[in-house]
Specification:
Mean pLDDT: 91
Largest sheet: 9 strands, mixed
Radius of gyration: 26 Å
Structural class: mainly beta
Low-confidence stretches: 1-5, 10-38
Helix content: under 10%
Number of helices: 4
Shape: globular
Strand content: 35-45%
């Protein structure tokens, strides 16, 4: 971890810290200037002192990151600099990870005379590390601005990194280019700089989708792990800091990142890395997943109630405007008979009878939940008023002889239902009451709290674990005739626990977390490229995000 403080690096010691070169000055370039209107030219405060060289600040001293005081004071420090000094592309303000939220990133601030958009490229002398190029998001609807503030991700630590900024006018014509070199400090975390990459076949660049693989690790032996962001070459390009409990998902809402950084803490982070809001969950602890309800501007969160003797069986609601946290559903009230049948395994202190590991909204007031301990996907309706059980997707044997038997939908066709599933995802259909849902079928027939379940009908699991596969599953669900049908499936490396699947364009990003690997598959289920971690920790999930509208422009083609 970088120690925080202020280390200001100037041109006078450039041999140790940076070299600045110019390959086309923004202020002196007249290319495309004939198309410039008065609204596209910066109005500069004459009282500002014009910077004559880059100001590069490296934090040094460690401090708690996710506090309002820490985040606010850093923003005030930057704002003060920008209010007194005019930074330019030739003499910008560069601040390594100022808010402490994203290792391997640096913020850059400057003003241009002409409104422009910017792409950047980061490169190092190591020929095994490809250059990293993206178009930057500037927050303007028209895509150009004279007031530039960006968080650049993709730096390689403990190396000199060359940064090349390329400027374009509103018509897309190149109007200037600047390059400089900064020394990125060494980062002491558990992150791997490069994953082992297996090229399954010759893959064209356009076969892999754009984005950064966001790898969410489990915690092992108390070791803290951050959110690691890898490019398509398996190179670590960012590392979002977390305080304690791992993050399992990032939600993107109105230009902000939302993710958990501890069991009882969720943050709202802007495109420059500032945590603008820090939400506390009080007596509740988040577990695994959350979903956004737009009309209520709230998160529905899977949680533990620390005052109860059960875990992973609670839904709470977090109001994003007020920060208020309220209990929504105690699942023991929805499935009391299933709870009563569960037994506490020897050595456990709290009963994990449901182990709900994923949540998806189906309508505005109903959710699908993945119950790992019961190998069931369960829909609950009217969650904000009077919650009620609507259906169950599983093999009928799990619920045979219980009062919930009639809620289990019929299977259409001959297939083995999912077992120990993770990462369910809802996809709307064209007809009312019909939709699809895809998931990672772990194919793990075990429940530590329900030894009475008969697994004999799960034929895919009737082989030794070392010969077993997990599966990508896609169901068609018909609420009108109360059926579910397996529309698509293919084998993936076996993982009894954890894991995820995500549709990205026409491809699938699939993580077999117990084996510490993930891969990208094409629409036919063919593996294109696989990535392997050397860490001891399981990979809980891997999702691929473009970060468009956050760090990168949505029309980014790189």
């Amino acid at each position: 971890m970088i120690k925080r403080g202020r280390k200001i690096v100037g041109l006078a010691i450039m041999s140790a810290c940076f070299i600045m070169t110019m390959t086309g000055c923004m202020q002196s370039s007249n290319k495309g200037a004939e198309n410039t209107t008065s609204q596209e030219v910066a109005t500069v405060d004459p009282n500002l002192t014009k910077a004559t060289k880059m100001e590069y600040i490296i934090p040094e001293e460690t401090g708690e990151i996710f506090t309002e005081e820490r985040q606010t004071s850093t923003k005030e420090e930057i704002d003060k600099k920008l209010s007194t000094t005019l930074y330019t592309p030739e003499a910008p303000l560069v601040y390594y990870n100022p808010f402490g939220t994203n290792l391997r990133s640096a913020n850059i601030y400057f003003t241009t005379e002409q409104a422009s958009s910017v792409t950047y490229t980061i490169s190092v002398e190591d020929q095994t590390i490809p250059a990293f190029t993206r178009q930057l998001e500037n927050g303007e609807e028209n895509g150009v601005t004279t007031n530039h503030a960006y968080q650049l991700v993709g730096f390689i630590p403990d190396m000199d990194n060359t940064v090349t900024l390329t400027f374009y006018n509103k018509d897309g014509a190149e109007i200037g280019k600047n390059s400089f070199v900064i020394a990125i400090p060494k980062v002491e975390t558990a992150a791997e700089q490069k994953l082992t990459v297996e090229e399954v076949k010759d893959v064209e660049d356009n076969e892999l989708t754009d984005g950064l693989f966001s790898v969410f690790y489990g915690r092992r032996n108390g070791q803290l792990v951050n959110i690691d962001l890898y490019d398509n070459d398996g190179i670590l390009r960012g590392e979002l800091y977390v305080d304690g409990y791992r993050t399992d998902r990032i939600l993107f809402i109105d230009g902000y990142l939302y993710y958990s950084v501890d069991e009882d803490k969720i943050v709202k982070v802007n495109r420059l890395g500032q945590a603008e809001k820090i939400y506390q969950l009080g007596q509740y602890e988040m577990h695994h997943d959350m979903a956004y309800q737009e009309d209520r501007n709230s998160f529905v969160i899977l949680a533990n109630d620390t005052k109860q003797d059960t875990v992973e069986d609670m839904l709470i609601e977090l109001n994003l405007e007020t920060g208020e946290v309220s209990k929504l559903i105690d699942l023991k009230d929805i499935l009391p008979e299933a709870y009563e049948k569960a037994v506490l395994p020897k050595g456990d202190k709290k009963l994990d009878w449901a182990h709900v590991n994923a949540i998806q909204f189906i309508e505005d007031d109903s959710v699908a939940l993945s119950f790992r301990e019961l190998s069931s996907i369960i829909k609950i309706g009217n969650i904000f008023d009077k919650p009620e059980l609507e259906y169950i997707l599983s093999d009928k044997s799990v619920w045979e002889g219980t009062s919930y038997e009639s809620y289990v939908y019929d299977k259409v066709g001959d297939f083995t239902a999912q077992a120990g599933q993770h990462s369910i995802t809802y996809v709307p259909g064209e007809k009312e009451g019909e939709y699809t849902m895809y998931l990672f079928n772990n194919n793990m027939t075990y429940s530590g709290t329900r030894r009475d379940i008969d697994w004999s009908g799960y034929t895919l699991a009737q082989v030794p674990e070392d010969e077993r596969s997990s599966y990508y599953y896609e169901y068609k669900i018909n609420e009108n005739d109360k059926t579910f049908e397996l529309m698509d499936s293919f084998e993936v490396p076996y993982s009894g626990y954890v894991s995820s699947v995500q549709q990205v364009g026409d491809n699938q990003v699939i993580c077999s977390g117990a084996q510490r690997l993930f891969g990208e598959y094409d629409s036919e289920g063919n593996l294109l490229r696989q990535y392997k971690s050397a860490k001891e920790q399981y990979i809980y999930r891997t999702f691929k995000y473009t970060f468009d509208g956050i760090w990168f422009a949505e029309n980014n083609n790189n």
